[in-house]
UniProtKB/TrEMBL annotation:
Residues 291-313 have a biased composition (Pro residues). Residues 214-323 are annotated as: Disordered. Residues 247-259 have a biased composition (Low complexity). This is Lipoprotein. It comes from Chloracidobacterium thermophilum (strain B). Keywords: Signal. Residues 1-26 form the signal peptide.
């Protein structure tokens, strides 16, 4: 009887063990597998780049295209200084596009126009000049734009041959007139229609420029298509506080950019980096003076004077000669 009881007891215990083990396996199999933690995708950072780098803020090819829309020099100046135009220059980096003044100069068979950017503080920087020449008896005229060497580098020319009948500005410029156009405006004395505006991003500016350069046969040159008969009266106008890294700076501009401690290091030797990162040569640091002891304090005893060491005895060899 005891053996039967023991048998049933062992069988019952074994069954409970199998039941519990099977339940654990069932529980573990019904649980979902842990999923790896995936970080949410990072939001793309938006970088707004402006086209205020010299040579990019005023497209010279678009300046030729603008002659097909302007009816005279005054309207050309107005088109240059309105928002979403081909003028996106911010040479002094004050957050506003620089106003460009137009001045006609010279005479004879060629018509010449100088474009000068007005910077803060009344400084002026010529950025380009435009020359128009008509071959006598021809219904076309050659239009040439040269970038100022300080801004665009040396020998940067763009030229195109345009029909006079389709370019109102050319017809006005080549017609006889009693006087040359000289803009009456200056820094702080802008026309009433002008409202300062901020530079636009590069992508927006390039789209705007495309609207002025479409279907215009502009050629890039390293030599002028129209020899300069009359030099620009504003060629020597350079802004000393020109903050952008210049392509070919003048001596005054170079000195200013060397003194400007907030500018990064320029590749052309125009600056030496921020003032906080400029190394001071050890020779220029004055030696610290010893501090005088406060009144009433006991001076420490002076160190004993140094005693000169006696000269070493002369060494003679066996023949009596000194080594």
């Amino acid at each position: 009887m005891a053996s039967h009881v023991g048998f049933w007891t062992r069988s019952l215990a074994l069954g409970l063990a199998v039941l519990l083990t099977g339940g654990c396996f069932a529980c573990s199999s019904s649980r979902p597998a842990p999923q790896p933690v995936v970080a949410p995708p990072a939001k793309p950072s938006t970088v707004t780049a402006t086209s205020n780098v010299p040579g990019q803020g005023l497209d010279l090819q678009a300046l030729i295209g603008l002659t097909k829309q302007a009816k005279d020099a005054e309207s050309l100046e107005r088109l240059l200084n309105q928002p979403v135009s081909i003028n996106n220059l911010d040479l002094d980096e004050d957050g506003q596009v620089d106003y460009i003044r137009v001045q006609e100069y010279g005479g004879g068979n060629t018509k010449n126009f100088s474009f000068v950017a007005l910077l803060k503080g009344g400084q002026e920087q010529e950025v380009a000049n435009l020359v128009i020449e008509q071959t006598p008896g021809q219904p076309e005229a050659t239009v040439q734009v040269q970038g100022h060497p300080a801004v665009y580098g040396p020998n940067v020319y763009y030229s195109a041959v345009l029909p006079i009948a389709t370019a109102l500005f050319l017809a006005w410029a080549l017609a006889p007139r009693p006087a040359l156009y000289v803009s009456p405006y200056g820094f702080g004395a802008f026309p009433p229609y002008y409202r300062p505006y901020a530079p636009v991003p590069v992508a927006t500016y390039r789209t705007t420029v495309t609207n002025y350069t479409r279907n215009i046969p502009v050629q890039r040159r390293t030599q002028p298509a129209i020899p300069a008969a009359t030099p620009s009266p504003n060629a020597a106008k350079v802004a000393p506080s020109f903050r952008q890294p210049l392509t070919q700076p003048g001596q005054t501009q170079r000195q200013f950019q060397q003194r400007d401690g907030n500018r990064p290091v320029a590749s052309g030797g125009f600056g030496q980096g921020p003032a906080s990162r400029r190394a001071i040569p050890p020779s220029s640091v004055p030696a610290a003076r010893p501090m005088a002891p406060p009144p009433g304090s006991v001076r420490p005893p002076a160190p004993p004077p140094s005693v000169a060491r006696p000269a070493p005895p002369r060494n003679f060899n066996t023949r009596g000669r000194r080594n």
